[in-house]
Amino acid sequence: xxxxxxxxxxxxxxxxxxxxxxxxxxQPHRWDVTLGDRGGWREIAALLPLALLPMVTALLLxxxxxxAETGRPLPELDxxxxxxxxxxxxxxxxxxxxxxxxxxxxxQVVLVxxxxxxxxxxxxxxxxxxxxxxxxxxxxxxxxxxxxxxQGRTEVVVYRRNLASLEPVPLQPDGVPRRVALDAExxxxxxxxxxxxxxxxxxxxxx
Length: 207
Known about the structure:
The protein is an alpha+beta fold. Helices cover 16% and strands 36% of the residues. The chain contains three helices and ten strands, in the order αααββββββββββ. The strands form three sheets. The chain has a four-stranded antiparallel beta sheet with strand order 4-5-6-7, with no helix packed on it. A three-stranded antiparallel beta sheet has the order 1-2-3, covered by helices on one side.
């Protein structure tokens, strides 16, 4: 038995499912009802003015929708990736998916168009003497950043697709890069790098 009405849990500033919460100019009503109770709807209806019932109904239905949401597979995209061979180290942009694919014992970077589900040509990027370790893409796949092992050295390079060009990115001070990330515009590069046994993060502005 409760000693009095209790304040219900607030939806928070961001509301349900991360959205904005609903507010009214009136003093919030208070009730002592568990939404799972079989008589909860009748008790809420008795406590709230009729004008607020549609709002409460929408909130409860929205909560149920949030709880029911689950991820769904994209079979067409899965098939496009599988055609390139085994994949790892995915980097998802706004319209593209970059990944490192292995086929025939050789690792290479693959860029897939999310709309057409087709691979995008990357002339001059995948060299037979280089092994990619990490890849990142901007929002539209115009720039790719890559950590690769070549001729006994691990290096960071940036690939510009419209020019089909590769440009090395020097690290200051020198270190061993492991992972890269690009912002949506392809102008800021983050590099995880090992120096003297410690992992550090370098942020680099690209021209």
